[in-house]
Amino acid sequence: MKRVLVSAAIVAILSSAxxxxxxxxxRPRGLxxxxxxxxxxxxxxxxxxxxxxxxxTVRITAAGLTPGFHGYHVHSIGVCDPASTDTAGAxxxxxSAGGHFNPVTTSTHGSHAGDMPPLLAADDGSAxxxxxxxxxxxxxxxxxDGSAVVLHAGPDNLAHVPATTATGGxxxxxxxxxxxxxxxxTKATGDAGARFGCGVLERISS
Length: 206
Hints:
- 17% of the residues lie in helices and 28% in strands.
- Strands 1, 2, 3, 5, 7, 8, 11 and 12 form an eight-stranded antiparallel beta sheet that branches. Strands 4-6 form a two-stranded antiparallel sheet. A two-stranded antiparallel ribbon has the order 9-10.
- It starts with a helix and ends with a strand.
- By secondary structure, it is of the alpha+beta class.
C-alpha cells in the first residue's frame, strides 16, 4: 500500500512540474523585431531576452548590409513607416520611430539607454552581434507607444568627439555649432547617417 501511495505522489509531482513548465513556456519571453529596409527587404532580426540576474541579452543577426560598421539603436516609438517625413516635411524613412530610447532625458548619445554597440558587417554583408546590458529590460520597451530598433547607414561614433587633447589642447571643432567637441547633431545621433532599416519590437513566447 505504501508503494502505491509513493508512486501516486511521484506521478502528482511530475504532473505538476510538467504543467508548470508548460505555463512558464506560455508566458512572454522577451521581444523580437524583424528589421526591413524602406523597400520592405528583410535585413535581419533582433531578440531581446531577459536574464535571471536582472540584465538583458541582445542578439542581432543581419544580412545584405554594406560592409563596415553601422549604428544600431533602440528607438522610442514602435512605428516603422518608410514614407514618414521629418520635422521640415522632407521624406525621411523611419523618422516615425522617434529618437533613441532615453528615459534619462539629460543624457547624451553614448549614454542613452537605447544605445548599442555598432554592428560590423563582413565583406559579404552579413553581421552577428550578442551582448548583455543593464540599461533596459524588455518590459521597459513595451510602453503605450512601443519601441523599435533602427539600423543606420553609417558608423556610429557614440559622440566620442573630444574637445581637447590629453594635455588640454583644442582638438575637434564643429563649424555647425562653432564649438570644440561633439556638436548638437553628434550628441543626438553619433553621426550614424540615414535610417537604413527599422523593426518594431514585439513580444515573443520562446
